[in-house]
Amino acid sequence: MMSTPESRLAELGIELPTPAAPVANYVACVQTGSLLVVSGQLPLKDGKLFATGKLGDAVSVETAVEAARYCMINIIAQVRAAVGDLSRVKRVVRLGGFIACTPDFTAHAAAMNGASDLAVAVFGDAGRHARSTVGVPSLPLNAPIEVEGLFEIG
After folding, report:
1. Are 10 and 77 in contact (CB under 8 A)?
2. CA dist., res. 104 & res. 107, Å (int)
3. Boundaries of domain holding 115
4. Domain for residue 21, yes or no?
5. pTM
6. 154 residues of the chain, pLDDT tens digit each
7. Domain named Endoribonuclease L-PSP/chorismate mutase-like: which ranges (predicted)?
8. Count of other CB atoms within 10 angstroms of residue 108
9. Do the domain assignments include residue 24?
10. Domain annotation covers residue 64
11. Is the dihedral of CA 99, 111, 77, 148 positive or negative?
12. What's the rounded Cα separation, in Å, for the pair 83 and 143?
């Protein structure tokens, strides 16, 4: 039996949430041709922020890794809502991570691995992606991390 993104989610014990609605004048996803862009997702768990604050201050790297994982779970939920079947994902092309942090914080990449590792766990080799991770002074709702995604859909 061939492994699918849905079966991998089940193996990981992940049940996708109802996708969060946009909170301003934008849409959650835009598809153009075979590319699907997913707007930045916060680390929501059960409809609430999993963590708040900045890395290098109140938020540890370990907490941020888990927060990034929740961001990726929310991205995957948006993808499924947009295309119906996660098996249509041909490639996770790019993830972009925004890390709310103090000026001296430098472990951005380690925090973002929570999202990247889950992308590979769910989509296999198709989950290997290009990535940018940037430190910022603040994020909406005092979230410690926000992740956006770009997917190739077949």
Report:
1. no
2. 10
3. 5-16+30-153
4. no
5. 0.97
6. 679 999 999 999 999 999 999 989 999 999 999 999 999 999 999 999 999 999 999 999 999 999 999 999 999 999 999 999 999 999 999 999 999 999 999 999 999 999 999 999 999 999 999 999 999 999 999 999 999 999 999 9
7. 6-143
8. 20
9. no
10. yes
11. positive
12. 27
